[in-house]
Amino acid sequence: MFGGRENVKWDLYTVVIFINWLANFILIAAGAVAVIYLILGGYSYMTSMGNPEAATKGKSMILWSIAGLLLILGAWVIINFVLKALNVPETVTTPSNYNP
Asked: Can you say whether residue 52 is alpha, beta or left, with left for phi > 0 and alpha for psi between -120 and 50 degrees?
């Protein structure tokens, strides 16, 4: 299942590492979507050509994408704080390179 290992021992440490890997994957995907939304908002604002509705829509997209990026950053900080409190080493990022 994880990197060709068929018999992964599902102890608490492995579950924590898997949750860390999954959270990082979700945060990276969400960050990519927020950046794309930021670019689209900037494009919408730049091409509004004086149309106040389109300019407002572009500004709103930019504002909410920045808010999303800040929320993602906050989630990443909280996850890493909890992992440091649980003494999970930084070198173990995926369950496949955890060898008990």
From this structure: alpha
Question: Is residue 61 assigned to a domain?
Answer: yes
Q: For the segment 37-85, what is each residue's pLDDT rounded down to a tens digit?
A: 999 999 999 999 989 999 999 999 999 999 999 999 999 999 888 888 8
Domain encompassing residue 79: 27-88
Spatial neighbors of 54 by CB under 8 A, at least 6 apart, are 44, 45, 47, 48
For the chain, how many structural domains are there in total? Answer: 1
Q: How far, CA to CA in Å, does 54 sit from each of 35, 47, 49, 67, 90?
A: 19, 8, 8, 20, 45
Cα dihedral: 85, 88, 89, 95 (round 10): -160
Q: pTM, whole model, 2 decimals?
A: 0.73
Q: Is residue 55 part of a domain?
A: yes
